[in-house]
Hints:
- The protein contains seven helices and two strands; from the N terminus they run ααααααββα.
- A hairpin with a 3-residue loop joins β1 and β2.
- The chain is globular and about 45 Å long.
- It has a two-stranded antiparallel ribbon.
- It has one domain: Four Helix Bundle (Hemerythrin (Met), subunit A), CATH 1.20.120.450.
- Helices cover about 65% and strands about 5% of the residues.
- The protein is mainly alpha-helical.
Amino acid sequence: MDFTDNAAGPLGMHPYLERIIGYLGEQDPITVLENSPGKLELLVSQLGSNGLDKSYAPGKWSARTILAQLADVELGMGFRIRQTLAEAKHHIQAFDQDAWARRYARLEPSLALETFRALRSWNLTLFAGFSLEDWLKEAVHPKRGKESIDLMVRFLAGHDLNHLLQLEQILEQ
């Protein structure tokens, strides 16, 4: 995926955002976010330690990498949302997910799952107290333009669904 492409997709947003949010469809993002840790834990237990090193397709991330990436994205998006709430006209700092992923093979999968669970719970508690003004507050992403907190949360839910699907594909192999 070329993350530097700024052209809008058919729905008028950045193609990467559009693709990830597309996994959400008509589902409630908060319900998806609430259910993801349990689904992730089940999939990881079904994969077992041998399955964590398998990938859903040649050249794609392993289950171990996906698990660590989910924890890091939860951390990164939680920070991004908090910064958006705290600052007027916040400018989001983008990150290179592949550069972060280069170190994931050394990380303990059970710790990644525990971290994801804790951060998700913490973030959901924050979201539960949002006002309409909070949901509509925007920040500026350097490659994708303006993003509301509502859009960020929808992205987070779609991101979960994307990676849960990948883990299910690994399990089916």
